[in-house]
Specification:
alpha/beta; five-stranded parallel β-sheet; 11% strand
Length: 341
């Protein structure tokens, strides 16, 4: 991410009369390896540009948090940068797959969580669910409750070292779905609930609203964000950066107007449930929005197919719907009987 790219983003939005904040997320590898001077220079520039152009920015960094220090914390606080980190629950679960010889990574991360909070930084977590975590629903939920941190869960994505260890890490669709159902029940029925399981809260909101609003599983992601890799190549998302079929252009040699106008997005924008036969007749099509197009591509060789997790989506959304409907029906009955509001 450079000054030139940010200027191109601002120019594109002005040209198209687009409102709202520009959301920039620094993602991995490990973004903090770029160093203090890089962020100090770039964030200062963004702050000045924001005032000159009357354009707001929301800056986030996805980091393993091991490199956070006082200098970073002060800098990010000054520029209202939010952080998200990876914590896989209690120490025994986190350190198992994130081990570094001679270091207790879990303790380092939690110490830096305290550092971030001391500087008022907004902080959330992603918990990656691998096979060894399937039987630890309560322990994972209790851990995040104890440290009072909102979190979301993700299945593991198979890139790099994860591919080499797929047999020991991989969860089946049914296993991950059952995990989510147990986690939902643990969270939803917790009378002392203090933390949010963000992906489950999003599912519950989808059940109540009837349609999606997210960027990955609940809408057409290609209309929500763009991934830019260090050489300037642009892709639909971080997962597709190794596949040239999903390459949209290069922002170092083009501008955003060129990338969007040359029709490279057309095939991705057209990936909506109505254009996928199996999805067009599905009851939850507007909730999952046919899932991840890259998952569909990996499993079926085309983006115009349902996500491979389709049956899992149906199962978890039905479970969430049943729980929410039961409570709404009970509340409605109480109002009818007692006139309570």
């Amino acid at each position: 991410m450079s000054k030139e790219i940010i200027e191109k983003i601002v120019s594109y939005r002005k040209h198209n009369d687009m409102n709202g904040a520009i959301n920039i997320t620094f993602h991995g590898g490990e973004p903090l390896l770029l160093g203090h001077k890089y962020y100090d220079k770039l964030l200062s520039y963004i702050t000045k540009l924001s005032a000159v152009e009357n354009q707001s920015f929301d800056i986030a960094i996805q980091t393993n948090l091991t490199l956070l220090d006082e200098e970073y914390a002060i800098l990010f606080s000054e520029h209202s940068v939010s952080l998200s980190t990876s914590i896989d629950g209690p120490k025994n679960l986190h350190n198992k797959n994130r081990a570094t010889p001679g270091k207790d990574i879990h303790s380092i991360v939690l110490n830096n969580v305290s550092l971030a909070r001391a500087h008022g930084l907004k902080l959330g977590a992603i918990c990656i669910i691998t096979k060894d975590k399937l039987n630890y629903v309560n322990e994972i939920y209790d851990f995040f409750s104890e440290i009072n941190m909102n979190f979301k869960t993700n299945p593991i994505f198979y890139h790099g070292r994860a591919l080499k260890n797929r047999e020991t890490l991989e969860t089946t669709i049914d296993e991950y779905t059952d995990f989510l159902i147990k986690l939902f029940d643990t969270w939803y029925y917790d009378k002392n609930q203090e933390v949010m399981v963000e992906n489950l809260f999003q599912m519950m909101t989808l059940v109540l609203k009837g349609s999606g609003y997210g960027s990955c599983y609940n809408s057409n992601c290609s209309t929500k964000h763009l991934t830019i890799v260090p050489n300037g190549d642009c892709y639909t998302c971080g997962r597709t950066t190794t596949n040239d079929l999903f390459k949209l252009g290069n922002i170092s040699s083009e501008n955003f107007q060129d990338i969007y106008d040359l029709g490279r997005f057309d095939k991705f924008i057209r990936r909506v449930p109505g254009n996928i036969p199996d999805c067009s007749i599905c009851d939850i099509k507007l909730k999952c929005f046919s899932g991840c197009m890259y998952e569909a591509f990996l499993n079926f060789g085309t983006i115009y197919a349902p996500d491979n997790n389709c049956n899992g989506f149906k199962k978890i959304y039905q479970h969430v719907y049943n729980a929410v409907k039961l409570d709404i029906d009970a509340l409605t009955n109480r109002r009818n009987i007692h006139g309570e509001y």
